[in-house]
Design goal:
275 residues; hpI Integrase, Chain A; 2 domains; 3-stranded antiparallel β-sheet
């Protein structure tokens, strides 16, 4: 290991106070180059670095290693180990459309739930709630009974400590009321496990996986997708989801564009023509 690399690892460990896992990840990424090319990393040029990466096809893996190199070179420049500032360009990764379920698919999953016992009523209410509110699972699990104010949901434990209020469909409210009444638990929080304790994240995951085959977060995507397809304004969806930036919400416009493309392909006569 070169002296510069040792200095960088000490910097991110002591000064930056990164976690042990993060430090090990940087060390692994950067040692890869020195060991493969048998030279100190600071002496390697761009062509040598990219040639070493030819063994990797996954662009996300490539970008992670390149990001580590950029962090190392930035440290070397600021520490005056390098006279010139070097920054490698990362690979472009196509944006993946978020996975979502149609309302029909969610209904089929709900139909599978046995609601003769309160546990089934809870599972039914939780799935409906997640789809009707677009709440993150972390927000849902912190929900207290007082956070449901008439037809409105007050999300107090939002990401970034930004509270928001969203309307909640009557069918979801009725399902929650039925579940709480039949459970018999007098707890402040809404979602309980079978012993009356607070429902855990892994238990919530098992519920949505059992009936829908997806994680709870897919229901948040499904909520947003349903709104966009229905014609909702993007800024309104941003507010309902609690996104800090509109850029985060814009991923859903790709779904809307695909819908428009599919509609033209099916219904416009010229789309069926071949030259």
């Amino acid at each position: 290991m070169s002296n510069e690399l040792e200095a960088f690892l000490e910097y991110i460990t002591v000064t930056k106070a990164l976690s042990k896992k993060s430090v090990e990840a940087y060390k692994s990424d950067l040692l890869f180059f020195e060991q493969r090319l048998q030279k100190p990393l600071i002496e390697l040029d761009t062509m040598a670095l990219f040639s070493a990466l030819e063994v990797y096809e996954n662009k996300r893996t490539l970008n992670r290693k390149l990001s580590s190199v950029n962090a190392f070179f930035d440290f070397c420049y600021k520490s005056q180990f390098k006279e010139e500032k070097t920054k490698l360009r990362l690979s472009k990764i196509p944006k993946l459309l978020p996975k979502f379920l149609s309302y029909e698919a969610i209904q089929k999953g709900l139909f599978l739930i046995d609601r003769s016992a309160w546990i089934g009523l809870r599972d039914y209410a939780l799935i409906l709630f997640l789809y009707a509110s677009g709440a993150r699972i972390s927000e849902a699990l912190e929900l207290s009974r007082n956070d449901i104010e008439g037809e409105w949901l007050h999300i107090r434990h939002a990401k970034g400590d930004k509270e928001r209020i969203v309307p909640l469909a009557e069918v979801a409210l009725e399902a929650i009321d039925t579940y709480l009444r039949e459970s018999g638990f007098e707890k402040d929080y809404v979602w309980c496990n079978y012993r009356g304790g607070k429902l855990s994240r892994i238990s919530a995951y098992k519920i949505t996986q059992k009936y829908l085959g997806v994680s709870p977060h897919v229901l948040r995507h499904s909520y947003a997708t349903s709104l966009i397809r229905g014609g909702a304004d993007l800024r309104v969806v941003q507010e309902l989801l609690g996104h800090a930036s509109l850029l985060t919400t814009q991923i859903y416009t790709h779904i809307q564009k695909q819908d428009l493309k599919d509609t033209v392909a099916v219904y416009h006569p010229i789309a069926q023509e071949h030259i």
